[in-house]
Amino acid sequence: MAVIISLAFLILWIAGLSIAGLWKIFEKAGHPGWAAIIPIYNMYIITKIAGKEWWWLLLLLIPIVNIVIAIILYIAVSEKFGKGAGFAVGLVFLPFIFAMILGFGDAEYKETTA
After folding, report:
1. What is the largest distance, in Å, between two alpha-carbon atoms of the chain?
2. Would you say the pTM of this structure is higher than 0.85?
3. Where are the alpha helices (DSSP H) in 29-64?
4. b vs e for 25-52, b when ≥16 Cβ sit within 10 Å of the residue's Cβ?
5. H helix or E strand, kind and range, residue 93
6. What is the pLDDT of residue 72?
7. Angle 82-111-66 (CA atoms, 0-180°, nearest 5)?
């Protein structure tokens, strides 16, 4: 029983860190932070931050395809904040850590990348 409670606590902790990081990322990009807690809508905001069209959200609903699209979106978001593809890999595999770094760090959102 203690293992189940500990696992549930760990999952809630990781989810809380991810939400906090996304909240700050959204605010840095000029979007409402509360959007981080609304499922599907938060992915729509990520597509906007990445500079992609709204229909990319539909691609995220297709199994297998969504993995590739999420990686592409995370690369675009990383670039918008002045980070590279390596940082996007971190966002894919350890989002609760890298979202916090991006949200609470000194990275600034740039509307266009040059």
Report:
1. 53
2. yes
3. 41-49, 56-59
4. bbbbbebebebbeeeeebbbbbbbbbeb
5. helix 85-93
6. 94
7. 75
Question: Residue 88, CB half-sphere, CA atoms under 13 Å: how many?
Answer: 20
pLDDT in tens, 70-100: 999 999 999 999 998 899 999 989 989 999 9
What amino acid is encoded at 11 in this protein? I
Residue 28 · residue 101 · CB < 8 Å: no
Residue-level pLDDT at 47 = 96
Residues of the chain with pLDDT under 50: none
Return the residue matching tokens 């029983």: 1
**Crossing angle of helices 2-28 and 95-104, rounded to 10°:** 30
